[in-house]
Design goal:
Layout (H helix, E strand, L loop, with lengths): L1 H11 L5 H20 L15 H13 L14 H11 L3 H9 L11 H12 L28 H16 L5 H15 L10 H10 L1 H18 L6 H7 L11 H11 L7 H15 L4 H17 L38 H5 L6 H7 L21 H10 L28
Helix pairs in contact: 1-2, 1-3, 6-8, 8-10, 9-10, 12-14, 13-14, 14-16
Length: 421
């Protein structure tokens, strides 16, 4: 009855108060006491390994059904019980990581809102699992000292982990939860699936959505392509379609360019395909922010170094005087855009860009290609703020030339009658 009352408070108190945290702490102390006093003894008188799974299962259900808190902008939960459980227990103790998944009873959750329930589940599961770590420094502690051997069974854990995640992925998710899942999928979820290929449908459907969802799904897709031989038809055609004017204004622009760099690195790709991507990026750069262009220029330079057959885009000696750009910007198939017959004239335009950093960087294409490839990490995360900060902290060799006459105001007194400036 005492444990029931503790769980009732954890599950039903809707406002933030220390009482909920105290109840959680007391309940988990009971878990520890039960692991010692409810364990059977061997013939030698020693306690057998034991974990109170039934008691812990009831706690997991109450945490996920807890009515406290709300769903945050990233799809996680502000629930104080969840936050306390994650920070004080789940992140520290490997046995809780194992038994949280093992004792999660999805049948108990069918009658509650999936958005609310999953927000709590996601808050917990976005943390890094330290189970089965081989590095001694990364091996976590255990809350219960004498654990059953099943805690070390990777096959069992991965099978259970997969089942529980697929349960939630097959239910309705809001858009923010969708994004957060895709952000953590390749590091927090795929490595713990017994059969990662079961995520193929989820990822391919995500890739077809378009926009930011497609961009975020690339990490997971890449893992399946690289490690599990996923065959995705028309992959590069879909990747090419993601290059639109919105791309270089998105929050995840740098993440996308890192992956695109990997996808286009193979020397076995047709030069016509590479040329289409480079031409598309060059065309988009004409209307992009300086912070985006600063990443496009070194990206293009590196690609031309990797694919020298595309150098014709910069130096075509056979072009006639009446040359017109044959590039078809509306063509969806990158092999049919005629980009390889075009040129990167847009990059020459950038050499007269209003921002001096962009103009200076673009001039690299007018020089011999003797420079080593750029380190893209130096350019991917630039923003307007970082560009301004670099200008503010830059040391001037000489004093800046200013107007020799001094003025008390921006505009003269007689500029507009009746107005003072």
């Amino acid at each position: 009855m005492f444990k029931f009352n503790l769980l009732f408070i954890i599950e039903n108190v809707i406002f933030d108060c220390s009482l909920i945290i105290d109840n959680l702490d007391i309940y988990l102390k009971l878990v520890k006491l039960e692991s010692v006093h409810f364990a059977t003894s061997s013939k030698e008188g020693e306690k057998n390994p034991f974990f109170p799974t039934k008691t812990f299962k009831n706690l997991v259900t109450s945490i996920l059904k807890s009515q406290n808190g709300e769903v945050l902008n990233d799809g996680t939960s502000s629930n104080i019980v969840v936050q306390e459980f994650v920070n004080s227990y789940f992140k520290k103790y490997q046995d809780f990581q194992f038994y949280f998944i093992n004792e999660l009873n999805t049948e108990e959750l069918n009658d509650v809102s999936n958005e609310q329930t999953f927000s709590k589940f996601l808050t917990i599961m976005k943390e890094k699992l330290t189970l089965f770590e081989s590095d001694d420094e990364k091996i976590g502690k255990t809350f219960v000292t004498n654990l059953p051997s099943i805690v070390n069974n990777q096959v069992h854990f991965k099978s259970t982990f997969e089942t529980k995640w697929l349960y939630f992925l097959n239910r309705e998710l809001n858009n923010n939860q969708y994004k957060t899942i895709l952000l953590i999928l390749h590091k927090r979820i795929i490595p713990f699936f017994s059969t990662p290929t079961k995520l193929m449908d989820f990822l391919t459907d995500s890739y077809e959505v378009g926009g930011i969802i497609s961009i975020l799904s690339l990490n997971g897709l890449f893992e399946l392509i690289k490690k599990y031989n996923l065959d995705y038809p028309n992959f590069y055609e879909k990747l090419y379609s993601l290059f639109d004017q919105d791309l270089f204004h998105m929050k995840y622009r740098s993440r996308f360019l890192r992956l695109t760099d990997v996808f286009l690195s193979s020397t076995h790709l047709p030069s016509a395909l590479i040329a289409s991507f480079l031409k598309k990026m060059a065309r988009l750069s004409l209307n992009s922010s300086p912070s985006a262009i600063v990443s496009i220029i070194p990206f293009t330079y590196n690609m031309l170094k990797k694919h020298p057959t595309c150098m014709i885009l910069l130096h075509n000696t056979s072009a006639s005087d009446d040359y017109t750009d044959p590039f078809d910007d509306s063509e969806k198939d990158p092999l049919k855009t005629k980009a390889i017959e075009s040129s990167l004239w847009e990059l020459e335009t950038l050499q007269t860009h209003y921002h001096p950093n962009v103009a200076t960087l673009a001039k690299i294409f007018s020089q011999p290609f003797r420079k080593q490839s750029y380190n893209m990490e130096d350019f991917l995360d630039w923003s307007y703020n970082s560009l301004l900060e670099s200008e503010n902290t830059r040391r001037m060799k000489n004093e800046v030339a200013l107007e020799h006459d001094k003025f008390d105001s921006l505009l003269g007194d007689g500029y507009i009658s009746g107005w003072k400036w």
